[in-house]
Amino acid sequence: MYTFSSKLKTFSIILMIIGILGIAYGFLTTPDTIQEVEALEAKSHGEHNGGHEIAKHEAVHEVVEAVKNETTPVVDSIKPTTENSEVVVKDSSSHEVVSTVVAHTEIVKKEEHKVDEHAAHQKHLEHQLHQLQNKPWAALYVPMIFILLLSMGTLAFYAIQQVAQAGWSPVLFRVMQGITAYLPVASVIFFVFLVLTGLHVFETNHLFAWMQEGITDSKSEHYDKIITGKSEYLNFPFWIIRAVIFLIGWNLYRHFSRKNCLAQDEASDNTFYKKNFNISAMFLVFFIVTESISSWDWIMSLDPHWSSTLFGWYVFASFFVSGITTICMVTLYLKNNGYLENVNTSHIHDLAKFMFGISVFWTYLWFSQFMLIWYANIPEEVTYFKTRIDVYTLPFWGAVAMNFVFPLLILINTDFKRISWVLTMAGVVILLGHYVDFFNMIMPATVGENWFIGISEICSLLFFVGLFIFVVFTALTKSPLLPKRNPFIEESKHFHY
Amino acid sequence: MDAVKKTRAAHHHIEEVFTPFPVHGLDKAMGLAPTRIAICAFIYGLVGLSFGTWMMDYIMIQDWPQDIGGKPSMSYIQNMPAFVPVMFEETVFFAAHLMVITFYMRSRLWPFKVAENPDVRTTDDHFLMEVSINNNEEDLISFLKSTGAVEVKSIEKHG
């Protein structure tokens, strides 16, 4: 039996407390009105000599607006110039592009004296306000969904091991069950969050653009034809019912799988093992369907004008590799504290191979999605990557470096895959890298160019990491770390590679 | 396996072992040095990657930078995604083929090579361990018999 070390417990509680304080700070410093945004902008205007930064922001902003909003007169006149500069946009120095756009914009503005600059400015401020108000919510949403899905990745891996009748992994089943113990807790938090968002309980939370009031009403100023076309799928009741089905389905599998596993310990035959085999196979079918749909619902619908067919797989690869990495991290921690006597370096080596392989798989999907859209360059699809590359340059390419280049070079070596500290280091980079990956998927749609990894983001992450550690290691104390009567347990104990 | 371990323990030098199929752990029991072919493959992969990069850069960017369907050909990095499939395949191609050729060269395998088979039965169902004799024929033969040998032969090799 494992005993939760008091040090780790205190550590996780401290993380949660710091997290909550930081989250609260994030919400308290959010501007409530347009006036506050104006004051904020004026302040940063002064800070950046000559307001170059602001000019850049506005230029980028107006380009984005141009794509989004075709009714404003200003935008109509800018449009042709924006298209002309599309060619230049490919240029590696975005600085140049921006200045040409700014120059064009200014010329256009001089020519068009009728333009109501005040109205445009007000519109800009409102847009800015919405993004700034979204910031703490999005900061909360990213680690919330990331760690929820991370424990789902673990659950999927666990189910695969059962169905594949893997001979090496049964000694790790209890570790995986411990990690997936986070799932029920995370599901509740996540579900409450979805309900709060969908019912507009908080004025400041407008993460999902398609939830906006009047968006499907042709008389409303918020009317959006494209979203209206999708509204049979993207509407709150159907969306939340889907979420209920997914979360309940996943939690049921996790509950019964663990129950059967514990019952198998006390049984005299293999009935419970066979039951687990069957429900795992059914779960995997259910999972792959629901995983795809949930990634459209929870992540892709943040950009309701954009769609991608392999998005579900891409999200899956991201959290699957995070789940495997977490199994490896927790196993290493328990092993180094002397709790897993039957786990040897060969087990660790196998986990490391999975980390390596699935990292490459993630890259494959990431690149396939990116390259296909980049190559065809269809305007309604390419804006997704254009915003990310122009505004999120560092996180966008940084995620590739952290999730591909780094693990590729570190984990390719057989000997390195058996060294604890090398794996810990690679694991931390992979996990952070996939956090950034989720950040890249969610932030551009919710806060746009107002992104920053500051107190809100870091503290939200700390809170969920703390909660994760607390729940997982509490769950690990609930049952022995070695399954007793698993048919493959002897083989697993003597596994050697 | 047992015989190999005993022979090693008795400090007889094993010239060669012939088996009809791979025996897991035989190399460890014989104390053979681990292979370095994976390191070779990694280096060949890097060569392939460089070759792919150089080739696409020279052809598409330096030599004749045309505008093909609006793809930016001003610099390599701009059009990089389009070259990745080529770079990837070159890497795999070089790593795989050069590694196989390295293997053939190091293990001296080629078509029309005369088989070095001391006993044809070793390709079917017999295992053969070759130990050289240093003026201790009697001792050695009795030792080998004690390790569970089906047949011990003393032959003189030429060449």
UniProtKB/TrEMBL annotation, chain A:
Top-level taxon of origin: Eukaryota
Ranges that cross the membrane: 12-28, 138-160, 181-202, 236-256, 277-299, 311-334, 354-374, 394-412, 419-436, 451-476
Keyword terms, alphabetized: Membrane, Transmembrane, Transmembrane helix
Protein name per Swiss-Prot or TrEMBL: Quinol:cytochrome C oxidoreductase
Organism listed in the record: Rotaria socialis
UniProtKB/TrEMBL annotation, chain B:
Transmembrane segment boundaries: 37-61, 81-104
Pfam families recorded: ActD
Signal sequence bounds: none
Protein's UniProt keywords contain tRNA-binding: no
Stored InterPro entries: ActD
Keyword hit for Zinc: no
Keywords: Membrane, Transmembrane, Transmembrane helix
PANTHER family in UniProt: LIPOPROTEIN-RELATED (PTHR40394), QUINOL:CYTOCHROME C OXIDOREDUCTASE MEMBRANE PROTEIN (PTHR40394:SF2)
Protein name: DUF3341 domain-containing protein
